[in-house]
Design goal:
Strand content: 15-25%
Radius of gyration: 20 Å
Number of strands: 6
Order of helices and strands: EEHEEEEHHHHHH
Length: 218
């Protein structure tokens, strides 16, 4: 349990807080806490912050349902910054992206142009897109929605998921044999999606998969 007395709040009584997804290690957002919001976070197990603009406490996800279930809280060597590792439900960003850090800083953006679509997650990285989709799938698993195809797969169980992975793999092969680029993109997207469902069914994260792939660099 974190000792709040150890934390060095600034002259306004605030401390910056970095929120990190506990499963993927993705940085979700930066916010601020005062002593009261930190205490409520520790007591309730979900994140509470202090809004500098409204000058009031607010619970993350209180209205949207996109709550952050706190797993661990760390403070840095100077005790003036907090790191919260949390299980994120839905999107962390008010713009609807999984992470608030969805824009990549580059020469074009420095010159005033938008380099990245704000609706994209983690910039344009493949891992970012897969992480975001994986979390949507996990959210459907934890919070079923009527009419959701993802929920339908989980309800039918592993055999149904495996059958779909096999079907999509076969259709990807056919698309390749047909030399049809658009068909290949569509079918492989279906295959990757169903593979992510399979990973979620076994509670295996994309990060674990990437770690294994990194070992195969030759």
């Amino acid at each position: 349990m974190i000792n709040i007395d150890n934390i060095k709040f600034d002259e306004k009584g605030l401390v910056p807080v970095i929120v990190q997804d506990v499963k993927t290690s993705a940085v979700l957002m930066l916010a601020y806490m005062n002593q009261e919001s930190l205490r409520k976070t520790v007591e309730t197990g979900v994140t509470w912050f202090y809004s500098r603009s409204r000058r009031a406490l607010w619970q993350k996800g209180e209205t949207s349902g996109h709550v952050q279930k706190v797993q661990e809280i760390y403070y840095d060597c100077d005790a003036d910054t907090l790191l919260v590792k949390a299980e994120q439900t839905g999107a962390a960003c008010h713009e609807g992206t999984f992470s608030c850090f969805s824009r990549k800083l580059g020469n074009s953006e420095i010159e005033g142009e938008k380099l990245v679509d704000p609706n994209k997650v983690y910039g344009e990285s493949v891992s970012g897109v897969l992480h975001e989709l994986y979390h949507v799938i996990n959210d459907r698993k934890a919070n079923p929605k009527e009419g959701s195809y993802t929920n339908y797969l989980f309800e039918k169980g592993q055999d149904k998921i495996l059958k779909k992975v096999g079907e999509e793999a076969a259709e990807t092969i056919i698309a390749s044999k047909n030399n049809d680029k658009n068909e290949l993109i569509s079918e492989m997207s279906d295959l990757w999606y169903h593979c992510l469902v399979l990973l979620a069914n076994h509670e295996v994260t994309p990060s674990e998969l990437f770690a294994e792939l990194q070992k195969r660099r030759k």
